[in-house]
Design brief:
The chain folds into two domains: 208 residues, Beta-Lactamase, CATH 3.30.450.20; 289 residues, Helix Hairpins (Orthogonal Bundle), CATH 1.10.287.950. The protein has twelve helices and seven strands. The strands form two sheets. It has a five-stranded antiparallel β-sheet with strand order 4-3-7-6-5, with helices on both faces. Its main location: membrane. Belongs to the methyl-accepting chemotaxis (MCP) protein family.
Length: 630
């Protein structure tokens, strides 16, 4: 593929423009010449048609030509036209005068077709003319359509392969009907030859002009663009890294100077670029040194973090196994040391809290055991009291049956009533002690709830520590990924610890509610016993009155019988309450045992806080005294 320089391209563009311009001129001149030639031929063929109709009028007796004042043909009329002619001298004469061809068309019987009946040169052995005889005029041609309208037609056409300028003149009958047409045609070869010669002449002249213009344009363009070659050489040197050579022609005030100035700007930019690259390389080396130092520091921090995570993972593993006595002895880095201290402190607080819970559970176990024993004794004594009341009721019945033994039975009743009052007072004392024990249990339950809240806070702090560890691991990137996993496990352990604390809290809350119910039941028992004491005092008064006034014996015995019946019902109710209190005490004992088993899963070390031995001994002694007194 050919490659041209800038000069060659400018010359080629100029030549192309000249070629297009020349072709446009040739086309326009050809169009004008062709139009003039066409009009000239039409004028010529009109004059030749006038000569033809004159010959036609001379040789055809029935033909009459009407002429206009200016000599133009106005109308051709014929009486009739034959459908066959033996010779064609008339058309030959017309052809000689017109220097072309002549044809006589005659309409057929239908009047819709025009057939060639007389043709020039048909008398000779001209096969083309002989072949055209009898051929109708093509109905699709403009000439046929004009003749059908009774109008003349002129223009270009092709007859038997030759292009002609043709003039068709209609022939009318006296009635005004078109019965034929006379046709004069001259060849267009001469006109085409003139036009072709003109085109060749213009083309040769234009080619010579373009050649001279191309040579001159090449010379002028080369002289004008010579500085571009020098600037191009400077640009190549600049592209090769030569920034020392000054770009020439930068002081010119034309486009060349503007281009040279732009190249000079590029040279200065290349100089600045080289300087900036040196500065960037220096900065890169400094950044690389800082990066290596930071990487070394990060690796050291990752090592310290790995030590911390391993220690925390080991401690958390022991914690998950129930060992709350674990402590991290290995010191961490300065920024991680608070994490170790917080972990050790959290474990210590958790162990202390669980130790407190264990001791409280032990104390609650002892208290509930004593409460259960007291409730059983209360239930048994209430049953005994009910039996005593039944015996009293039977004695009163015997009193009504044996009035004569009123005095002895009254003394016996007085004795029984005094005994019942003592029992009721003793039972009231036991109930008050049971209420006090229940109050202490309720207080212990609230303390356990506070301890559980502390454990929940410890679990929350552990979760926060694990979250902080996850954040630090995320900041450490890939080096802290393992620590992130450990922190996630720590959060899971803290979550499980919180769930366990919630379960313990639910158990403690249930126990507190049951203890509250027991306190209310025992208080009701005390109130009932208080009423029993009051009733027994009334019975004692009644018995004294019986001894003092025998006349009221019957009435007093009846009232006493009613009172004993009410006392029996109250005693039965007390027995039911005592049984409920005993059942609640047994349930509380079972729950406390479960709490002890739950706390016992953890290894608390020295953090277990059990009740002091003196307090335990005093509690046992008080319990034994209550049991022996009752």
């Amino acid at each position: 593929m050919l490659r041209f320089g800038l000069v060659g391209k400018i010359v080629l563009v100029t030549i192309a423009f000249l070629i297009v311009f020349t072709i446009s001129i040739i086309v326009e001149i050809t169009h004008l010449v062709r139009s003039e030639m066409h009009q000239s031929l039409l004028d010529s063929i009109h004059s030749r048609m006038r000569a033809a109709v004159s010959i036609f009028e001379r040789d055809m007796p029935t033909v009459h030509v009407t002429w206009a004042a200016n000599g133009a043909i106005q109308r051709v009329t014929a009486g009739s036209l034959a459908t066959h002619y033996s010779d064609h001298h008339m058309t030959d004469a017309i052809a000689r005068v017109a220097n072309g061809r002549a044809v006589l068309f005659v309409a057929d019987e239908s009047g819709h077709s025009f057939v060639r009946r007389m043709v020039s040169d048909a008398n000779d052995t001209n096969e083309e003319s002989q072949r055209s005889l009898g051929m109708p005029l093509d109905p699709s041609t403009p000439a046929y359509q004009a003749l059908a309208r009774g109008e003349p037609s002129e223009g270009e056409t092709t007859l038997l392969g030759t292009r002609y300028y043709v003039y068709y003149l209609p022939i009318f009958s006296p009635e005004g009907k078109v019965i034929g047409s006379i046709d004069v045609a001259i060849t267009a070869n001469k006109a085409d030859a003139v036009i072709n010669n003109l085109i060749w002449t213009i083309g040769l002249v234009a080619g010579a002009i373009m050649l001279v213009a191309a040579i001159g344009m090449a010379f002028i363009t080369k002289r004008m663009l010579q500085p571009l070659a020098v600037i191009t050489q400077s640009m190549r040197g600049l592209a090769g890294g030569d920034t020392t050579t000054v770009v020439p022609y930068a002081d010119r005030q034309d486009e060349i100077g503007t281009m040279a100035g732009a190249v000079e700007v590029f040279r200065q930019a290349a100089i600045d670029k080289a300087r900036l690259e040196q500065e960037a390389e220096k900065a890169r080396r400094q950044q690389e040194a800082e990066r290596q130092a930071a990487q070394q520091k990060a690796e050291e921090a990752a090592h310290q973090l790995q030590i911390a995570t391993d220690s925390l993972a080991d401690g958390l593993q022991k914690m998950s196994n129930g060992d709350l006595s674990v402590q991290i002895k290995t010191r961490f880095a300065a920024d991680l040391e608070p994490l170790r201290e917080n972990f050790n402190q959290s474990i210590s607080q958790l162990a202390s809290a669980f130790g407190t819970v264990s001791g409280s559970a032990y104390s609650i176990s002892n208290s509930t055991h004593e409460l259960s024993t007291a409730s059983d004794n209360l239930s048994r004594r209430t049953e005994q009291q009910a039996a005593t009341l039944e015996e009293t009721s039977a004695a009163l019945t015997q009193i009504t049956q044996r009035v004569q033994k009123t005095t002895e039975e009254t003394r016996h009743a007085h004795t029984v009533v005094n005994s019942s009052r003592a029992d009721a007072e003793q039972a009231s004392l036991v109930v008050r002690k049971a209420v006090d024990a229940m109050s202490r249990i309720d207080t212990s339950s609230r303390e356990i709830s506070g301890i559980i809240g502390l454990i929940n806070d410890v679990a929350f702090q552990t979760n926060i520590l694990a979250l902080n560890a996850s954040v630090e691991a995320a900041r450490a990137g890939d080096a802290g990924r393992g620590f992130a996993v450990v922190a996630t496990e720590v959060r899971h352990l803290a979550h499980r610890s919180a769930e366990a604390v919630k379960e313990i809290s639910a158990l403690i809350t249930g126990s507190a509610m049951q203890v509250k119910d027991g306190v209310e039941s025992v208080q009701e028992t005390g109130n009932a016993l208080h009423r029993i004491v009051s009733q027994v005092e009334e019975i004692s008064t009644l018995v004294s009155n019986i001894a003092a006034a025998a006349q009221d014996q019957a009435t007093s015995i009846s009232e006493l019988n009613l009172a004993m019946t009410s006392m029996e019902q109250t005693t039965q109710q007390n027995a039911a309450v005592a049984e409920q209190s005993a059942a609640a005490s047994h349930n509380l004992t079972t729950m406390v045992t479960e709490l002890q088993n739950l706390v016992g899963r953890f290894d608390l070390g020295d953090a277990v806080k059990l009740p002091h031995q003196d307090q335990i001994s005093l509690q046992r002694t008080a319990t034994l005294r209550i049991v022996s007194h009752n």
